């Protein structure tokens, strides 16, 4: 069974000698991670700018830019400064090389020949650390998006949108009286024509006969007349002029309120009603001798 390499975390190995690169690839092959080669320090820097690596293994003794200079340049770049570095060197080198390697920012220092199991263990630690860092970054980004979506302001008083497929429930129709509603219903033009004798309303044009006992006035017009022309309350024979005057004044104020919102023939009829009430007031004043 062939194991597919995990390309989420790559390893960079840097050495000027081909046999050392082959040996490192053989040791790290069991980790199933992508391994990238570099033959010099300059080539290693270019590779790190093109691709993200979990860990870098660098040989100290290289011509041109040696391992210490390569590690220092890697730590000097913002894009690569957090990548861990393992320096590799021979046994016959200066004992101060380890101290110098840690000074330039190396995470570990191994002396050749090294134990393959030890190298794989150290590299595997940095691979796990890299994977966890990527998971934390992804979770932080997801949490940021959730917080941003929750903090978006909604307009005050704006109702929430109904879910898709929700049935629309119509509001129940209610009849509002003229004393409670400032805007009474206005009769349609066809309804007003039906009210007038000999008018050309919809019922007249269709030639439909009105059944005995049934009103020829449409219900809409009847409702408007009930609101726009309040019937005067009956006055007892013993009621005085002062009581009659108060009743007429109340009717006059109500009709004037309806007149502000009326249009067309309704407005003219209400104006005539106001004139009749004013005449009635005048007659009462004359009868009282004022």
UniProtKB/TrEMBL annotation:
Give all 4-aspartylphosphate modified positions: 59
* Domain Response regulatory span(s) in chain numbering: 10-127
Give a GO biological-process term: phosphorelay signal transduction system
Q: Which InterPro entries match?
A: Bact_response_regulator, CheY-like_superfamily, Sig_transdc_resp-reg_receiver
Q: Which domain of life is it from?
A: Bacteria
Report the PROSITE patterns cross-referenced here: RESPONSE_REGULATORY
Disordered: region residues: 146-245
**Which keywords does this Swiss-Prot/TrEMBL entry list?**
Phosphoprotein
According to the UniProt entry, which residue ranges have a biased composition of type Low complexity? Answer: 166-189
Q: What is the recorded name of this protein? A: Response regulatory domain-containing protein
């Amino acid at each position: 069974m062939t194991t597919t390499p995990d390309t989420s975390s790559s390893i960079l190995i840097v050495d000027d000698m081909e046999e050392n690169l082959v040996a490192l690839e053989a040791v790290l092959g069991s980790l199933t991670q992508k391994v990238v080669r570099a033959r010099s320090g300059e080539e290693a820097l270019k590779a790190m700018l093109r691709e993200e690596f979990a860990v870098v293994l660098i040989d100290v003794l290289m011509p041109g830019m040696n391992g210490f200079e390569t590690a220092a340049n890697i730590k000097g770049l913002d894009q690569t400064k957090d990548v861990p570095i393992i320096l590799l060197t021979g046994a016959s080198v200066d004992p101060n090389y380890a101290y110098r390697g840690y000074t330039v920012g190396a995470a570990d220092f191994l002396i050749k020949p090294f134990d393959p199991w030890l190298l794989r263990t150290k590299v595997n630690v940095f691979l796990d650390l890299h994977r966890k860092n990527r998971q934390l970054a992804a979770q932080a980004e997801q949490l940021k998006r959730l917080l941003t979506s929750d903090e978006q302001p909604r307009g005050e008083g704006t109702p929430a949108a109904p879910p898709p497929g929700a049935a629309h429930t119509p509001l129940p129709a209610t009849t509002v009286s003229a004393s409670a509603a400032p805007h009474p219903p206005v009769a349609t033009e066809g309804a007003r024509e039906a009210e007038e004798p000999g008018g050309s309303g919809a019922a007249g044009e269709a030639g439909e006969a009105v059944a005995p006992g049934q009103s020829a006035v449409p219900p809409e017009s009847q409702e408007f007349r009930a609101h726009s022309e309040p019937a005067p309350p009956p006055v007892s024979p013993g009621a005085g002029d002062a009581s009659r005057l108060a009743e007429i004044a109340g009717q006059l104020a109500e009709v004037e309120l309806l007149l502000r919102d009326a249009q067309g023939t309704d407005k003219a009829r209400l104006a005539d009603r106001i004139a009749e009430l004013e005449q009635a007031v005048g007659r009462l004043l004359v009868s009282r001798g004022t």
